Backbone:
């Protein structure tokens, strides 16, 4: 179920544009923020509100790399390995995360706590190597800071102790 | 963390125009901003005719900071003023060019400066609606902007009859959702219309046929953030800071193998060598410089012998490269350039939207070729094949993403051909063999 707060946000966002379909991508992002992924219900609701067919919403989802229709981990570790990060050890950071979590690119731990993704430049090049956990930035990473971060997140979410 | 970890490290060579308010406590709040000359540029603009505003910006020689370096005032002048259609201002905050992270600080540290620039641009071209298109990853910055926009409405800087002038202007943020291509202006417009971010055929240019088919100007965050101080201090003042035809300052983001990575505001035309040695503290760990990417990963690389170039649009273009987006990436002597070329191409292959065949196929094949080459499966003819594929992408696509992929590749293939040949001769990566840390393969299987 989409929350009432989200539906109100939908109304406010759609009102910003002279053409309603402009709101599709922002609405998808906000719906995904709430549910963790873009649900079938969200697709139907957005299509109906902006006056397009559901398939047109689905077409957009397929284009944008941040949108996904299947659940992912509660904490999505997005490690940049692009040029500035590569030069300062971004590859090793990715490997370290992968080993520690036992998952690879675009995989999720069985308990649903963590996902891992190798991503392109995050706009944090001066703090390379960098990553984002969901929307939060972490810069100047080392294996030690990664360990502390992951352990901290695990504690916050004890379901993952198994 | 919802902030950029200490990117502003300061340098005595800095000239603070865009960053003059950085560090003032709470300057992201409107009342503090106003105490420090905030919205003075807008007040000034509203006393002038729109044509006079455009003339002032032209005089400043402000050139687009998004990459192409087009004269901003000239672009504004292309908007047909007598057109009965609505007109739009679109601010490009998609910042995704590898090595580039300067729009981020402009929004984080001084969001009202950007809002003010948008309103002035709107006044100049007769627009009543602006959108700031911001990359999806920059969510915390969108929240900063949304708060600031709310304050600007409450104080009468946005909305109806701004400051009693009779001019109306609305402004809203619009989040992207992960697509480098949506930074390209026509793909951005499609994305803003709720479509996939595929590029449009040009001409017609957006200034005439843009958002919803209406006249639209698209400018980078840094370009629009530069406008308030130009109005406040005059175009001549701004032009004098830089070199002829390259007005003002720009934010350079120094990254890679440098001692003091960070973002520095420097006058246009400062020699790259001074940036490396005096601002950035030299190559890290006392190593030697191999090459520099002067303005984001789309730019042809410069070798260590080419760094006396003044950092402005015209000087870099004269030596076959580009000032681009101001992301300066330094690469040390121990880096494998085959691997660097591969990683850069991997990005373009991932981001090619697939609309134009030379780009879609070219980037995928080049990625595969470079990957195989670095993985020691290279053949002698690969080097010329790679050059041939690259040349067949240049200028053959609707948007310049194909060029952006081909240009750095050609420069690396030409300037570092000997490294490719060394791979062939050795049958393995010479840097990996030496155990240099940056020669190590990026990540096992999955990443490739
Ligand atoms: C593939 C591609 C990606 C681009 N990405 C950006 C970007 O993220 N931000 C930006 O300001 N300009 C980007 N540009 C340049 C824009 O197309 C456009 O030239 C610029 O926004 C115009 O603003 P300016 O004149 O103020 O620089 C990109 C261009 C290409 C070809
Ligand atoms: S290259 Fe990693 S954040 Fe820019």
Residues:
């Amino acid at each position: 179920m989409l929350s009432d707060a989200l539906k109100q946000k939908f109304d406010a966002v759609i009102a910003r544009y002279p053409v309603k379909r402009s709101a599709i991508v922002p609405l998808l992002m906000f719906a995904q923020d709430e549910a963790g992924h873009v649900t079938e219900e969200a697709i139907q609701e957005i299509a109906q509100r902006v006056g397009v067919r559901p398939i047109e919403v689905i077409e957009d989802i397929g284009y944008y790399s941040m949108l996904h229709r299947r659940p992912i981990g509660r904490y999505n570790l997005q490690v940049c390995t692009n040029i500035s990060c590569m030069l300062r050890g971004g590859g090793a950071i990715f490997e370290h995360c992968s080993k520690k979590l036992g998952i690879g690119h675009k995989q999720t731990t069985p308990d649903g706590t963590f996902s891992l993704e190798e991503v392109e430049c995050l706009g944090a090049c001066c703090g390379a190597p960098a990553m984002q956990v969901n929307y939060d930035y972490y810069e100047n990473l080392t294996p030690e800071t990664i360990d502390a971060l992951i352990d901290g997140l695990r504690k916050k979410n004890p379901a993952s102790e198994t | 963390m919802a902030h950029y970890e200490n990117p502003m490290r300061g340098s005595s060579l800095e000239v603070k125009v865009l960053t003059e308010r950085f560090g003032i406590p709470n300057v992201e709040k409107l009342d503090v901003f106003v105490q420090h000359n905030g919205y003075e540029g807008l007040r000034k603009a509203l006393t002038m005719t729109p044509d006079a505003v455009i003339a002032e910006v032209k005089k400043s020689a402000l050139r687009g900071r998004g990459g192409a370096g087009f004269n901003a005032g000239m672009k504004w002048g292309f908007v047909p003023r007598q057109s009965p259609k609505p007109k739009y201002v679109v601010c490009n905050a998609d910042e995704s060019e590898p090595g580039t992270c300067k729009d981020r600080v402009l929004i984080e540290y001084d969001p009202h400066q950007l809002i003010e620039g948008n309103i002035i641009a709107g006044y100049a071209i007769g627009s009543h609606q602006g959108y700031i298109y911001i990359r999806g990853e920059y969510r915390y910055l969108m929240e900063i902007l949304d708060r600031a926009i709310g304050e600007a409405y409450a104080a009468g800087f946005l909305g109806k009859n701004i400051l009693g002038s009779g001019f109306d202007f609305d402004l809203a943020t619009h989040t992207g959702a992960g697509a480098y291509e949506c930074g390209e202006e026509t793909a951005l417009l499609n994305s803003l219309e709720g479509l996939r971010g595929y590029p449009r055929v040009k001409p017609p240019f957006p200034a005439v046929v843009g958002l919803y088919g209406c006249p639209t100007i698209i400018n980078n965050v840094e370009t629009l953030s530069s406008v308030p101080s130009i109005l406040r201090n005059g175009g001549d003042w701004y032009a004098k800071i830089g070199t002829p035809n390259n007005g003002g300052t720009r934010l350079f983001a120094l990254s890679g193998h440098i001692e003091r990575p960070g973002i520095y505001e420097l006058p246009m035309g400062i020699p790259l060598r001074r940036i490396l040695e005096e601002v950035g503290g030299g190559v890290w760990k006392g190593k030697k410089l191999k090459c520099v990417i002067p303005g984001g990963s789309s730019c042809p690389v410069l070798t260590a012998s080419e760094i006396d170039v003044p950092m402005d649009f015209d000087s870099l273009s004269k030596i076959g490269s580009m000032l681009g987006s101001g992301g300066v990436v330094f690469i040390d002597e121990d880096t494998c350039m085959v691997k660097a070329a591969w990683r850069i191409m991997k990005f373009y292959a991932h981001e090619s939207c697939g609309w134009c065949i030379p780009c879609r196929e070219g980037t995928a094949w080049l990625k595969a070729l470079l990957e195989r080459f670095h993985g020691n499966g290279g053949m002698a003819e690969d080097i010329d094949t790679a050059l041939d594929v690259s040349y067949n992408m240049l200028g053959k696509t609707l948007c310049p993403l194909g060029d952006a992929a081909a240009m750095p590749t050609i420069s690396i293939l030409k300037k570092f051909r000997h490294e490719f040949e060394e791979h062939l001769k050795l049958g393995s990566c010479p840097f990996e063999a030496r155990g240099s840390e940056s020669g190590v393969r990026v990540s096992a299987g999955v990443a490739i």
